[in-house]
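User: Predict the full complex structure for these chains.
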Amino acid sequence: MKTTYNWLKEYTDVPDAPDALAHRLTMLGLEVDEVVSLERSFQGVVVGKVVAKSAHPNADKLSVCRVDVGAEELSVVCGAANVAVGQKVPLAKVGAKLPNGVQLKRVKIRGVESEGMICSEIELGISSRSEGIMVLDNGAKIGADFLDVVGERDYLIDIDVTPNRPDCFGVLGIAREIATATETPFEKPAVHVAESTTPVSQHVKVTIHDSQKCPRYTARYIENIRVKPSPSWLAERLERVGIRSINNIVDVTNFVMMETGQPLHAFDYDLLTGGEINVRCAADGEEFMTLDDKTHKLHSECLLICDGEKPVALGGMMGGRNSEVSADTVNILLESAYFDPVNIRRTSKFLGISTESSKRFERGVDPNGAVYALDRAAQLLAELGEGDVAKGVVDKYPNRISPIKIKLRPERVRLLLGVAIPVPRIRSILTGLGFDVSGEEVLEVAVPTFRPDVVLEADLVEEVGRVFGYDNIPSDFSAVIDQSVPANASEALTSRLKSTLVALGLSEVVTYDLIGKDAARSFLQEGEPVTLIKPLSEELSTLRTSLIPSLLHTVCWNINHFNKNIKFFEVGTTFVADNKAVREYEHIAAVFTGAVAMISWQNKSAPVDVYDVKGCVEQLLTRNKVANCRFKPAEETSTVEQRLQVFAGEDVLGYLGKLTSSVLNHFSLEQPVFFFDLNLAKVHSACTSKVTFTPIPKYPPINRDLALIIDESIEAGKIIETVRKSGGKLLKNIEVFDVFTGEQIGTGLKSIALNLSFYSLERTLQEQEVEKAMQAVLQSLAKQFSARLRD
Amino acid sequence: MAESLDTLLGELEAIRSAFSTEVGTLREAQAIEQIRVKYLGRNGKVAHYFKKMSTLAPAERPALGDSLNKLKSEFQERLVHLQVALRSNGKQGSHMFDLTLPGTAPEIGYRNPLLQVLDEIKEIFGNMGFVVKTGPLVENEYYNFQALNFPDDHPSRDLQDTFHLNGGLLLRTHTSPVQIRTMETQKPPIRIIAPGRCFRKDTPDATHSPEFHQVEGLAVNEGISLSHLKGTLIAFAHKLFGKETKVRFRPSYFPFTEPSAEMDVYFDERLGWLEILGAGMVHPNVLSGVGIDPEKYTGFAFGMGIERIAMLKYQIGDIRHFYDNDIRFLKQF
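Assistant: Here is the predicted structure of the two-chain assembly.
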């Protein structure tokens, strides 16, 4: 909502400078976005009087005027048709600098020298009107600086009005706030309509067919009006708040709307059949052309204002082309109505149009303010358009909307705000804001109908609190905390998992939940992907079914930005539709590509492989006390090869592996990418939260190396398993320290070297016991895998 | 027999060059000890000349002493260097160490600054007794709007342009539904924060993201007032932005709080006051909707956007950096 500093001052004393006023409004809950100085420079522009006018000798449309500027008389060529002897005009002398940047020079126009220029409003930057020169009030002093004539400096104040405050969509509402806060009087302009003797009922008949959607419709009839440009005070006031000046009729309706918050509409009465107004709902599919030349297809909830035979306005939204006020208009019908906010909002959403009018109606204008605005406009139209206002108002208001009453307990104010505000202050705040307050212990408050947002006691408390000032409410730093509620354990666990991954050299990323549909489909494991009804784009159309596609996006981004070595992880949600319900799963997933470790002069680049990922997952899980973590090779899929299933005991936690070339192609990736993807809830339940100390062996271990030669096809896991089973209780640890194939070993064979560590917590081991265990191990290996020792 | 000083000094020069030659050809760390004994040992060459000191005229003795001391410390220093430079353990062999080469750092990971700020906020409120609660990202109209006192067909819904799914579902536009879900199952006293992801239909640009993060807070108990809200949030701002930070509260509008407020933080001359969060006293309709008597209990709630706070904290000008995850960006935090 835009207003100006001077406009506000018309209704109340403003003790603040513009910036201080902006701060005051902001602290009242009317946040000021900006204050713009409307200072203009009219250097070299003075008031002149046209004392003579003669035709230009060489051009039909030009005239040569003698203009008295006090100290001298200038000869000026003028192209405007409306220039006339006796007028006071703004005259830009040679050397003058206009707000549009033009610097005036002495010129010859069609052979006649011009010693200046008589200016139009657009040239002076006052309004966008360019038809003819600006004619000043007769009282303007000849030779005076033009700046003195157009008044003092003004400031645009742009307020971000919250949706609950329709009253502040009018300058009067904002002025009321200021007056209450500064405890100064506030007065609405007094209205007196000079009426003719013709009764309005002779010309206008209004029927409301749907009083739910249109609870009130008021109208006045004004005849013999002259449509002409608005006086400069009006044009300028509107232009300053960003509304284009059109003519006196339209400008008055806009002015009163900006002033009171009540939208008005003027119809060309002679284009209304039968002088009738019928307020009804549209038929489904009915079409209507609004005055912006757009045709709208309506449905049965849209409200139409019709004359005796046809629709003439889209109720609360916009007038029709067919009944618009034009230069030829002589008689007008002026509308001021109250429409149901919900229905206006639905219509606005349905048609996809939002106007100054609909914005106000959908927030809720004052149903009991309709006639005040109507009269205010009628009075101005009579003054500015020399119209005759017919006697009386047509006011259809079948069910009067009365102010609601709310009880306010001063104790409740103290309880909610945390400060005891004296009852007289509460009373004066509410009264200032337009509430009627009675009662002593418990206040009985009648809410004015321009405040539809106030319906509960808490709403009144806010009114009191914001005018009292949030800054004046003390801050209480004490708080009794209920210590019986335990902290969120899974949050803490997730945080530990993340720390482990960061320590392992992985970086944490944040990616979108929304991805493309194809990607969501290819990583789907069950059910259906969840799609948006109206997505922003195809790339952001579907909720992810896996974290991998979004992680691959970050890989692409980095590879395209010169970083080929990436280890990223994310904790995020995946979504699956399952019988209309949407299931959400938290996952912890990572991608690995490029070199396994940081490359330096000492460490040469080694590409990451599936063992690196396996090791990482193993560290992640064992570090966070997942018991019985194990891996099992699993079938390859269209997206994953070298696939391993990750288990804790018998529970599947997730998968790891290498992404297939078809996935990489989809993302235009050329280097191999590995990943792991674990279900976070399952990881959580596999983590043992309780850690118990295991005694550290006091006695030295005995280590034995075992270099075996076996068939190439035998999996290391099976060898280890056999060693573990046959090694006895003293065998505590097995490490693989070398795997080798080559000619020395023989084709179809491989060498695998293990280190076996034996120890006891109770005693020092004897060589013989270990020797015995080693024999048992070797026998089992020989029997099961025909393994033999490497020489 | 008395020897001349000049002769002795000449001999010392010869010892120095012999030492240099021996050290220069040395390739085994173990050999250092032999050289040390030979030159610096109790019966070594340097000691030998110290013994000759008494044969000189007293006036000449200091000159020899100085030269010997210099020689001794020179030899010691060279042997220490040699010790560092020579490691004869296997692979490195007789490789010469150059300690001016860059160190080889182990690789570590980085964390997205957005989540670091989120964790910081969780910690601050955690220390004030707020417990973390989470909720689904796919919500319905009831939890996202109705239970939070958003009227149907009201312009307040325009504040939050929503992504809709089939079956009356939607992507939550704020973390406030967690308030409702918590109050449905837990009786006062309640003191929670709900961090998490939210969605609004905004086309991505420098200041908008269709996905963003919020932290919602809620405290409900007997006797909670706007004073407590102010105290809690001022303490928060001081912990996050520093103790000198200027904070102000101004009235605002949210359907689910009444009275409502926004908190601004003063940054500097250039940025001025910037809005950090929205807050207010829990609306009586919200409380009674979940079966909590608003006459008996009152509460406050607040919500803040993490991206905005992280952008202010680190002076990041473009919200998309958080979601691009350029490693050069991540490494800065």
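Chain A touches chain B through 91 residues (CB under 8 Å).
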